[in-house]
Amino acid sequence: MFQNADKPRGRPRSFDESHALEKATQVFWSKGYDGVTIDDLVEGMGVGRPSLYAVFGDKRAIFLRVLKAYAEKKGARAAKALLSPQSLRDSIAGFLRFAVESATEKGSARGCLMVCVAPLVDDAEVKRFLQNAVAGGTALVEGRFRDAITAGEIPSDFPVSARATHVTDFGRGLTIRALIGTPRKTLLREAEKAADLVLLPLQRNPER
Fold it and tell me: Which InterPro entries does this one have (predicted)?
């Protein structure tokens, strides 16, 4: 009878990688990027220093992984709110309500990691990532507007690019207001008003 000749592998990890990254998110939230030390991450993530470096890398590498995971998760939820089958007005309102709800979620820090923490990081790769994320979000809203033009909900000359930028700017503004303590109910009302403003018909110059 043959015995298994495979060499024993290293000890399995005693931590879940994705869960450790979620904990790292809270560490960066609580202290900001510059205020976080490796000791903070070791303690907050529950990972020994050798394993932390081996699996995740240094502080910068960990933050980039945290930021990308956070953006992917939040972006998917925002897209779902925007693209679910409903009227254009309800789609835009849903997108903005999601910005408010995620920024005021019970049990988590107010605001958004990508709006309130990452922009303060002086790192070229982080800035490129944020620029690409903003462009991607705007393109998503543009696509929803173009679908609405095809469906006859808005006229073909609707300023898609400008209004899409307004939508994402409104979303960031609501997020910042959440950070400074504006009540959720107030922000949700503002999200509804913003959706109406974005869809105001084009103003025509009166004939002279």
Answer: Homeodomain-like_sf, HTH_TetR, Tet_transcr_reg_TetR-rel_C_sf
